[in-house]
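Why this split exists: single-chain examples teach little about how molecules sit against one another. For that reason, every record in the complexes split bundles all components of an assembly together and asks for one structure covering all of them. Below is a record exactly as it appears in the raw files.
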Amino acid sequence: MLSIVLLVTDSKTQILSQARAVVSVVALPIHVVASSPVLFFHWIGNDLEDWGELKNKYSVLQRQHLILQSRLQQLDALQAENTRLREIIGTASKLSEEAIFARIVEVHPDPYNQTVLVNRGGADGAYVGQAVIGSTGVIGQVVRVGLFRSSIMLITDSSQGIPVQFVRSGVRTIVYGSGQGNLLTAPYLARTADVRRGDIFVTSGLGYLYPEGYPVGTIQKIESDVNSPFLSIVAEPAAQLSGAREVLLMSGNENKSSTVPDPEKMSN
Amino acid sequence: MPNGASSKNYNPDWISLVLIYWCFAVPKKIGLAPAWLIGLLVDIVSFGTLGRYALSKLIIVFLADRLALRVRMFPVWQQSFIILFLLTIETAILLFIGIIISDINFSHDRWIAVLVGALLWPVIYIMLRRLRHWARLP
């Protein structure tokens, strides 16, 4: 009986979220213990890398660093130009660059949802509805916040939808998680829409949850059925969802969150 | 080892299996309140909706307690069928709750995990019994 009451209050209201944040501290030692074997193997793996391998890796990283650095210089100039142009057109530019660095905790306790835990929580400034970006693309959003841990729902979860825009054609749509493995679907594209296999789509910034312009995925398969007005599209996420270890929690949309309905409810 | 959510995960629910073992070994000793608390702890640790695992563990322990005296007569491999039944019920409960509050992915992995749990039951049973005798528990 009590569990049913708990279930209803927790799923329909926000009352318990404060209590959860505090109570979740209990989970911390369990997470630490549960993730220790994996961390131990990583640690061994890192320690046993031999000298040549390390040197190789170092030179590769250095080269990458140089290339990225040179691109960054361009980026600064472009950004300045962009702001200037936007000022001319009269639209406000919003480039939020604040982010919290977080590491994914090697614990996967709930097999019924596509969620991962990260080692940042309310105490570090994480909040519900925060967009999470990996090194190659959007990972998901923060759905629950504890004091030192929070849980991130991946974009491939079937309850997740992201407003996106195709880079090549500029077509806008919403992409949903398929819930089946590592795939996305885009169910609302008309059969006449200008999309092709291999098209890349990025966050469009509509919906205020995800900042604009981060890669979300690539179209893998398009099927056109004469009986349906919509294309059936299967896409692959840009981010490595199963392999990612470090992510960024973007904190640009906090001021907007008051105007936006609860992201968990919104995406349903 | 779990590695991100999108990799295939056929791990059976170890907590349920251990709980069921203890119900069979010493019926009516665990009690419903501790079972509920263990489930709640799982909910907290997994950052899921509170009360989901609490309810499922409660029902599992209740059913296992009811079945315990009968089951102890069976050979281990026949107990696997009972385990299959219990784990199926738990998965069904979790899926049902998930569908009602709509925060779930229906995936076939979970049913495979149920099968894996039932198949592993003899191993788990023997290991836990050894452990119990070694630790001189009741």
